Amino acid sequence: MATAALLSLIITVALDITEANFDIIWNVPTFMCSGSFGLNLTKDLLKYNILVNNKESFVGDKIAVIYDYKMGIYPKIDSKDGDINGGIPRLDRLEKHLKIAKMNVSQLISNPDFSGLGVIDWEAWRPSWDYLWGPLKIYQNRTIKLIEKDNPSSSDRDIESAAKDLWEETAKQWMLRTLQLAKRLRPKGRWCYYHFPDCYNYYGKDHPSQYFCSDRTSSINDRLSWMWDESTALCPSIYLHEEQFEYNKSQQVWYTFGRLAEAVRVSRPQTKIYPYMNYLVHKSRVFVSK
User: Fold this and answer.
1) In the chain, how many domains are there?
2) What are 141-197's pLDDT values in tens digits?
3) Do the domain assignments include residue 184?
4) 165: closest CA among 129, 207, 136, 114?
5) What start and end residues bound the annotated signal peptide (predicted)?
6) pLDDT reported for residue 7
7) Residue 3 lies inside a defined structural domain of this protein
């Protein structure tokens, strides 16, 4: 679930590693624990120079995460509920989305001088056609059907090519204009999409280079230059999943380095990088050790 995905720490990576300084932002809604059990986690967090929202809120002055269901009319296909907001992104619904998203952002982040990190968490689909695999292939199939309906005599190859173009342009407009809206409303904040860029480097073995982004992945990420140009932050994930705990320590380091290296590669000179890391093994209750 997306609502659990960001219960984590965020580390700001200094692009000049010789400075060896970074920030840690607490992105866990511990206000529930503090309120129920009389804890004062803020005091402990500040002791270790960890940045934390006022009252340990999930949306606050240091960081504000906005999930898809809280921002506009984000379209997606749910395995249980079916089509939500039309299922797939369409340009004829974008203006309505932006109108509603404007109200949402203004309400969620009420301070017009917000200067923290704004994270848009859209995970139901990806803007790159080639990465709509597994459960996400349904977005390819639905887009192909749209093209087939208007071009019944076209070849399968031409239909898929047109579907790819339609998907990537529509997804781009939805993500780009939503990001531009957030920046316009809260211009002092730093804005990113969670989990971008990705590296898909899950299958390395016994050499560091096997954990770098493949040339194909880097090429596809290069086609998202509009996102890197517009983002004022990058928020890749360096979560360790259960399969990464089959790696030895060196492999875990290589895996993490590969993902960070891709973020540094696509980043623009003034863009800060905020990798998401979790103190739990992803989707489990097992704590990550040192």
Assistant:
1) 1
2) 999 999 999 999 999 999 999 999 999 999 999 999 999 999 999 999 999 999 999
3) yes
4) 129
5) 1-20
6) 41
7) no
**Cross-sheet strand order for the sheet of 50-52:** 50-52, 24-27, 8-11, 276-277
Chain-wide mean pLDDT for the chain?
Answer: 90
Q: What number of other Cβ atoms are within 10 A of residue 28's Cβ?
A: 19
For 4, 106, 158, 186, 190, the CA distances from 113, given in Å and listed in that order, are 28, 11, 49, 7, 12
Residue 136 lies in domain: 76-115+126-188
Q: Which residues of the chain have pLDDT under 50?
A: 1-8, 13-18
The answer to whether residue 134 sits within a structural domain is yes
Q: Which residues are part of the catalytic machinery?
A: 123
Residue 155 phi, psi dihedral angles, 5° rounding: -70, 160
Is 91 among the domain residues? Answer: yes
Single-letter residue type at 95: E
The model's pTM is 0.90
* Maximum C-alpha span of the chain: 68
